[in-house]
Amino acid sequence: METTVKKEQKVEHTSTSSATITKDMTIGEVVAKWPETAEIMLGYGLHCIGCHVNPYESIEGGAYGHGMSKETVEQLVKEMNEAVESHEDKDIALSDSAIKKFAELMEKEGKAGWGLKFSVEPGGCSGFSYVMDFAQKPEESEQVVTEKGMKIFVDKSVLSMVKGVRIDFTDGLQGSGFKISNPNAHGSCGCGKSFH
């Protein structure tokens, strides 16, 4: 009986997650809800994520506009769904560009091999602010989360507030910096560095 229940739960999870993102969804909607998909779209040459029509253009429409085949569109959607599914299981996710930038900064500061200290403190225009720094080792109150080979030290008292956070690094015409997406935040400030 117990095995049957577990099996049913697994099937239900698979069926809901396999249809999370569809080719009919707009590019803007998908990137806003799942920022981790932006890198995948860019990797396929779908640069519409920064275009002014992304709130109106579907993934399929944008992909066909860039000369992609039906099979390529299906593969793109599949990869995005896999990324979203694997991201949901993580305490903290780092994009490849964020890891690269953290590594560059650590090297520049003579802290290569150190970990990223990620914390939350009261303040900012929305109630809480994110604080990032480098640390050689975790403090006793911190939990170590490893993401793509990088150690992240998070205080156990705030882990529930930041579980599922994704840290990206963007470098573009609007400036460069780290972008933090937190599924637990009820709202965030325009600066992107505080939330509630």
Description:
Strand 6 and strand 7 form a beta hairpin. The protein is an alpha/beta fold. The protein is built from 7 helices and 8 strands, in the order H-H-H-H-H-E-H-E-E-E-E-H-E-E-E. It folds into 2 domains: about 90 residues, SP0561-like, CATH 1.10.3910; about 100 residues, HesB-like domain (Hypothetical Protein Aq_1857, Chain: A, Sandwich), CATH 2.60.300. The N terminus and C terminus are likely disordered. A 5-stranded mixed sheet has the order 4-5-2-3-8. The relative contact order is 0.13.
Keyphrases for this structure?
alpha/beta; 196 residues; three-stranded mixed β-sheet; single chain; 24% strand; Hypothetical Protein Aq_1857, Chain: A; disordered N terminus; five-stranded mixed β-sheet; SP0561-like
Ordered list of secondary-structure elements with their pairings:
Layout: H1 2-17, H2 27-33, H3 37-43, H4 59-65, H5 70-88, E1 92-94, H6 96-108, E2 115-122, E3 128-135, E4 142-147, E5 150-155, H7 159-162, E6 165-172, E7 175-181, E8 194-195
Parallel strand pairs: 1-6, 2-5
Antiparallel strand pairs: 2-3, 3-8, 4-5, 6-7
Query: What is the terminal separation in angstroms?
Result: 43 Å
Q: What's the CATH superfamily of the largest domain, by name?
A: HesB-like domain
Helix/strand/pairing class, anyone?
alpha/beta
What kind of sheet is the major sheet?
5 strands, mixed
Tell me what portion of residues adopts beta-strand conformation: 15-25%
**If helices are DSSP runs of H or I spanning 4 or more residues, what is the number of helices?**
7
Portion of residues within helices: 25-40%
What average pLDDT do the residues reach? 78
Gross geometry: elongated
Q: Which CATH class of the largest domain applies here?
A: Mainly Beta
| CATH fold-level label of the largest domain | Hypothetical Protein Aq_1857, Chain: A
Uncertain stretches of 5 or more adjacent residues = 1-19, 187-196
Number of separate domains: 2
Which value, in Å, is the CA radius of gyration? 19 Å
CATH architectural category of the largest domain: Sandwich
Give the ordered list of helices and strands. HHHHHEHEEEEHEEE
The counted number of beta strands is 8
Strand order across the biggest sheet? Answer: 4-5-2-3-8
